[in-house]
Specification:
alpha+beta, single chain, five-stranded antiparallel sheet, SH3 type barrels, 37% strand
Length: 78
């Protein structure tokens, strides 16, 4: 499943990145989205772009293309 498929309030864990996402992978990893990192979806814009997540204690806003590059494992509901 991809990060962009989650709804507000859902918890998840970064499982990895899709193949061919080299342009975003390095940037996102530098911002703290490494494999195994837990996060929560805090906001989604009305048209689905951008998505805001809370990761490692800070808010990170991702465009739809960036969110689509991240594969996730759904976590427990809050």
């Amino acid at each position: 499943m991809k990060l962009g498929d989650l709804a507000v309030g859902e918890k998840a864990k970064v499982a990895g990145y899709i193949k061919g996402s080299k342009t975003y992978r390095g940037k996102l990893m530098a911002m703290g989205l490494t494999k195994g990192t837990d996060f929560v979806i805090t906001r989604v814009a009305p048209m689905g772009d951008p998505v805001e997540i809370n990761v490692r204690g800070f808010a990170l806003t991702l465009r739809k293309d960036e969110a689509a590059a991240v594969t996730v494992e759904r976590g427990n509901q809050p």
